[in-house]
Specification:
By secondary structure, the chain is of the alpha/beta class. It folds into two domains: about 1-115, 3-Layer(aba) Sandwich (Rossmann fold), CATH 3.40.50.720; about 120-215, Regulator of K+ conductance, C-terminal domain (Alpha-Beta Plaits). About 30% of the residues lie in helices and about 25% in strands. The chain has seven helices and eleven strands. It has helices at about 10-20, 35-45, 55-60, 75-90, 105-110, 120-130, 210-215, and strands at about 1-5, 25-30, 45-50, 70, 95-100, 115, 135-140, 145-155, 175-180, 185, 200-205. The strands form two sheets. It has a six-stranded parallel β-sheet, sandwiched between helices. Helix 2 links the parallel strand 2 (about 25-30) and strand 3. It is elongated, with a radius of gyration of 22 Å. It comes from Tengunoibacter tsumagoiensis. Keywords: Ion transport, NAD, Potassium, Potassium transport, Transport. This is Trk system potassium uptake protein TrkA. Pfam families: TrkA_C, TrkA_N. One of its GO terms (molecular function) is potassium ion transmembrane transporter activity.
C-alpha cells in the first residue's frame, strides 16, 4: 500500500517507521524545516517538506495514487483539512484522522472522515477497565458498522445469574461472543448458564448500549 502521513511529530514518526518496517510505501509530510531535517536524517526519502493541508503539497506527494492518508498532527482542524483535501480533491479511498478532542468525533464523522482515532478515549477506556468495581467498559467502536465491542462483568446481584442465554431477552442487534470465567474462555451457546463475575464480551448496536446495561444489571 502507498500511505501518506500528515504531521511529523512523535506519532507521525513512529507510525511511519512501523509502516515502513511492515513493507508499505510511506511518505511523511512535515512543514517545519528543523523537524523535517531531523526526520530526513533517519527516514531519508520517506519524508517530504510541506504542509499536508495544502493541495499543492498533496499533489507533490502523489496523493492521486495513495491508498490511504493518515492525519496525525496535534491540531484537529488540520487533521480534518488534510483528510478532506485527500478525499475531495484526490479521491483517496481511505482517510484516518487523529482526534485530539473527543468532542469533535461527531463532526469528523459527518464530514466524511472514514476513521477517527482518539488517544484520549483509548486511555479512558484502559483506565476504566482497571478500576476496581467497574462493570461496563466500552472497548472499541466500529464506526462504519455502527457497532460497539463491550466488556461486561456480571454483578453478584444481576438478574441474569443462573439463566441460560436463550432465556435472556437480549436486544436484537446484540451478539455475545466470549465469556471469561476465572481464567477459562467460554464460547457461549444458547445453553450457556451465566454466573456472577463472568466477563462477557459483546458486539452490540450503539443504540442498544443502555438496554444491555439494564439487562445485565451493570448500571
Amino acid at each position: 500500500m502507498y500511505i501518506i502521513v500528515g504531521g511529523g511529530g512523535d506519532v507521525g514518526y513512529y507510525l511511519t517507521r512501523n509502516l515502513l518496517n511492515q513493507g508499505h510505501e510511506v511518505l511523511l509530510l512535515e512543514k517545519h524545516t528543523s523537524r523535517y531535517q531531523s526526520l530526513s536524517e533517519e527516514l531519508g526519502q520517506s519524508v517530504l517538506k510541506g504542509d499536508a493541508c495544502e493541495a499543492r503539497t498533496m499533489e507533490e506527494a502523489g496523493a492521486r495514487r495513495a491508498d490511504a492518508v493518515i492525519a496525525v498532527t496535534g491540531e484537529d482542524e488540520d487533521n480534518l483539512v488534510i483528510c478532506q483535501v485527500a478525499k475531495k480533491r484526490f479521491n483517496v479511498a481511505r482517510t484516518i484522522a487523529r482526534l485530539n478532542n473527543p468532542k469533535h468525533e461527531e463532526l469528523f464523522k459527518k464530514l466524511g472522515i472514514d476513521v477517527s482515532v482518539s488517544p484520549t478515549k483509548a486511555i479512558l477506556s484502559l483506565i476504566e477497565s482497571e478500576l476496581p468495581g467497574q462493570r461496563f467498559v466500552l472497548l472499541m467502536t466500529l464506526k462504519r458498522a455502527g457497532l460497539e465491542i463491550l466488556e461486561i462483568t456480571i454483578p453478584p446481584l444481576s438478574p441474569v445469574i443462573g439463566k441460560q442465554l436463550s432465556q435472556i431477552n437480549l436486544p436484537r442487534r446484540c451478539n455475545l461472543t466470549l465469556i471469561i470465567r476465572g481464567s477459562e474462555p467460554i464460547f457461549p451457546s444458547g445453553e450457556t448458564v451465566l454466573e456472577a463475575n463472568d466477563e462477557v464480551y459483546a458486539v452490540v448496536n450503539h443504540d442498544a448500549e443502555e438496554e444491555i446495561r439494564k439487562t445485565f444489571g451493570a448500571v
